[in-house]
TrEMBL record, chains A, B:
This is Phosphate acyltransferase. It catalyses: a fatty acyl-[ACP] + phosphate = an acyl phosphate + holo-[ACP]. It comes from Oribacterium asaccharolyticum ACB7. GO terms for cellular component: cytoplasm. Homodimer. Probably interacts with PlsY. The keyword rRNA-binding does not apply. Pathway: Lipid metabolism; phospholipid metabolism. It is found in: Cytoplasm. GO terms for molecular function: phosphate:acyl-[acyl carrier protein] acyltransferase activity.
Length: 336, 336
């Protein structure tokens, strides 16, 4: 029986989305959910649903961490917050995974400070599945470690490959390093050094540089970069997509009655086609390399993404990915 | 009379596009064009046009630099290439500006090695006008200097602001620093240090962090970053745009006769609306902070972009922007 801890208070819709997603995920057998948060609020939310009470347990917490707080300070001070309590459950092996839609900074800080890094892991990256023309790829690191070192990127690649192989059944997944050109001599000093380490590691399917424009074409399964670059990739994807779609919708609406008719005709097929670009359907972004799984879902999450993230956490736990990742990382006492 | 040197051999279409763009730009008065390249080829191309022979001069060169050569080696060895000869004309004040569609690496290396940096300039950035929802912004550095230092970014911002104020008549242009969040404590070490320097310089309209997703919304006029990040921004813009448009076109084509009809109805208004996202209409990307203007146009350029770049070069020269930029940079002997 997999036990999943849920920060039921985080996110813009907080308890509403988290509880909805939790209840709906119970169609899946073989797991129990622990909802961390304010007892009264959660009881109230749960009262709208019928569910097996054996499989959802409320763990009352008196505090919440907001997105406006300094993450490290909040983690240290708010010992009875849903985020810290949920993460402690993972650390103490009372839960196999933790899911939160709360402050990204607090989830990242809590992952390191409360759950803790697996032995030998330099820095746990935040990894997100992003849609491509051909499917999805894992962008790692997309938010945790700026000012990265070459050997960190090497580990991001290894952990990402294991994730894609186990969770998405992609055999020997191709790994690309984000670069500013395909030529060997291109790159900044971090990328040049990481390139060499990745080339030397023949246990993985490293295909060399990937230019930003090729990421969305889907020419590799694991896209490796430092968190600054990864965040720029993610935000540009989001920004350009949103802006272009709004330009197109706007054109349809304001180019006369024929264009409006055309818009009506295209609405359904376009919606269907572009569905694959909705990042929420892929579940949350796991932090890899911690002693237990932590998944960050979008702040503006809906119940559906939460349900997907719960399934993702269950699969991760059942496949013992925490252990497999730890085994793939060469043991080494990492200095702080 | 402004004199503009043109590398007539660079780019995918080489002489064809460059000569077409050159001849068409002659509608503009007050300038003379120097076409550097193989005499026979250029004579042949020019023979298709009627033009004032006083205003176009062929400067015969026996060598070409290809995009496959090591830029620095090529610049050092091929002294009679159209690229080196054209840049030398700028250095020797026989021309006011130089335009090339050739290898970006060679244009950047030649800018530094042949034309040379203006006194006090740490590193000349490659700056590109990119379309936004509201118009355009200048992305600087988008290709020249990876592993940048905070004070370089400060200069990129200053030079970019002067460019936007003078060339695009944007009064007191807003400057944003590419970052991974709006909060004060966000960023990598480069960005944090640059942020402080930019905040302290009250001569410019620095507005703080700009997240990648906001760049395309057009919320600032000068977008500052190191060349690695700038290249990722540029390539993501290109890649996401291309991919989304192909998905949409494909949906229209393969969703039955009604969708096809809709596509026909929308073709014209959409084309008109999306025209502003064609980067070529904004001319080329100037390298700022050199002793003379160097402009890089796209490798797959057409005549139209070349014409626009020539006008851009003429305006830059007439407004004495090289001098204005030099004056804005605090004099300082920069160590290599």
């Amino acid at each position: 029986m997999v036990r999943i801890a849920i920060d039921a208070m985080g996110g813009d819709l907080s308890a509403k989305a988290m509880v909805k997603g939790a209840v709906e995920s119970l169609k899946e057998e073989g797991m129990k959910l622990l909802l961390f948060g304010e007892e009264e609020v959660l009881k109230q939310e749960l009262s709208s649903y019928s569910y097996d009470p054996e499989r959802i347990e409320i763990v009352p917490c008196s505090e919440n961490i907001s997105i406006h707080e300094s993450p490290v300070m909040a983690i240290r001070r708010k010992k009875d917050s849903s985020l810290v309590r949920g993460m402690l459950a993972v650390k103490n092996e009372e839960a196999d995974a933790f899911i939160s839609a709360g402050s990204t900074g607090a989830v990242l800080a809590g992952g390191q400070l409360v759950v803790g890094r697996e032995k030998g892991v330099y820095r746990p990256p935040l990894a997100a599945l992003i849609p491509t023309k051909n499917g999805v790829c894992l962008l790692t690191d997309c938010g945790a470690n700026v000012d990265a070192k070459p050997e960190w990127l090497h580990q991001f690649a290894k952990m990402g490959a294991i994730y894609m192989e186990e969770m998405l059944q992609i055999k020997n997944p191709s790994i690309g390093l984000v670069n500013i050109g395909a030529e060997e001599e291109k790159g900044n000093s971090l990328v040049k050094a990481a390139m060499q380490i990745l080339r030397e590691d023949t246990d993985y399917n490293f295909i060399g540089s990937v230019e930003a424009r090729d990421i969305v074409e889907g020419n590799c399964s694991v896209v490796v970069c430092d968190a600054f670059v990864g965040n720029v990739v993610l935000k540009m994807y989001e920004g350009v997509g949103k802006m272009l779609l709004s330009e197109i919708t706007d054109t349809m609406k304001h180019s006369g009655p024929l264009a409006l008719l055309a818009a009506l005709l295209l609405k359904k097929p376009l919606k269907k086609r572009l569905k694959k670009f909705d990042a929420k359907q892929y579940g949350g972004a796991p932090i890899l390399g911690l002693k237990g799984l932590v998944i960050k879902v979008h702040g503006n999450t809906d119940g559906k993404e939460v349900t997907t993230a719960i399934k993702q956490a269950k699969e991760f736990a059942e496949k013992k990915l925490t252990k497999k990742i730890a085994e793939a990382i060469d043991f080494k006492e990492v200095e702080e």
